[in-house]
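Example with several molecule types.
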Amino acid sequence: MTSSPIILVLSALGLQTARQIKSGLEDSIIYGLNTRVDGADESFENFGDTVRQFYQSGHPIIALCSAGITIRSLSSILENKGAEPPVLAVADDGSAVVPLLGGTTGVNVLARQIAAILDVPPAITTSGELRFGTCLLNPPPGIQLKNPEKAKTFIADMLAGKTVRIEGNAPWLADARLPLDENGELLIRVTSGSAEAGENELVYQSSSDNEQSRPRGKLTVIGLGPGDPDFMIPAVKQALKQAQDILGYETYIRMAGTFRANQIIHATDNREEMQRARHAFDLAATGRSVVMISSGDPGVFAMATAVIEALHESDNPAWHDVELEILPGVSAALAAAGKSGAPLGHDFCIISLSDNLKPWEIIEKRISLAAEADFAFAFYNPISKPRPWQLPRAIELLRQHRKPDTPVVLGRDIGRPAETLRTIRLGDLTPEQVDMRTVVVVGSSLTRSFPKAGGGDWTYTPRWYGTKPHS
Ligand code: SAH
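Resulting structure tokens for the full complex:
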């Protein structure tokens, strides 16, 4: 289920293009043909075997060669139409980006991303039909499409540029990116009564009988852990398998692995968390099984709180009837701490340096008091372009209470292919060493480090305080 994109390269020119793609797709890995490509991250011997192996293990594949070679290599294993990773062919000079397989696992999203990096238009051939088709033909349980025979023409009309309006409540279409227009020529009607379908119209019926027999909807808020699928708890893997709808940022959805064709992905770059939480309840309240994805732990600066807050604010009985479960994940601080030893082995606190949702004065107060009380720290959201000065100020406050030789662990992309882990001293910590993908662990007055055999350091905070007890 590892899902770093694999870039396969067959020529030196291809390697240049691959590097350009990788600059915008950092977790990808470049594999070069061993006899022709020098300087790739990894090498391979046989294109066919390699592409089939990555396909079967669910990695998104970006092949810098012709679409024909790629399809021919995969043709023998294509019949088994289960979960399928995105597969793209990219011309080795970067002039064309062609999505081939994986329409329901985000191939077109990836194609657009790569095309933007290479500054060419992506050769999207199926997006409309797949996206509109899936959600129009598979309404949630309890709702029936009365005239499925019209769907094909309806979808073709949308693809040809006609706009559509919706009458009634259709939450399962909220993410479908239909060409909506209040004066649309096409009509989607959701009704609980009987209805005759007119021309240019799809009719969905939700009968009250159906509503009472309808299965109880489920919303599971999951944490993927830091990235490595081995760090994901089995209950989370199970929830992902059983989900009918999956919501979350595109990056996390890719990290979660591959999905079956009948699972609906609601990928979003929407930063409005409350809106996303409400959308999840709307879907689950229709009887669907919905999974909301966070990275790390969903309760640590992530979606679980927004989901519970949305429920608290709602007086909709259908929302309160949804079976809600929050499944934990390994949070970044714990993953980084484990890799470096046990710096959080005594009392510690986790502080987000983002002042988007809390005043900076509160953050300063917490840092100062926790530093004075000799807690160890893990800092999340440590620095970003719009927030350049917060980390320097936090370092200044820490230095008022800690010696310059206090160990600091910088864990970046922990559990992901680009993982780095370094132990430095507080006196040497500068903001340039840190970005948004880093968790910063700062020791207490007792935290200490010693060199590890084979390089790096072990860092730990002892279990005792003051003087070491007799052992
Ligand atoms: N729910 C997440 C945290 C989200 S806040 C969790 O429990 O881990 C986002 C911040 O978490 C990032 O700015 C970074 O500081 C930290 N982070 C998340 N994943 C990380 C990883 N794999 N490696 C290092 N830091 C990470």
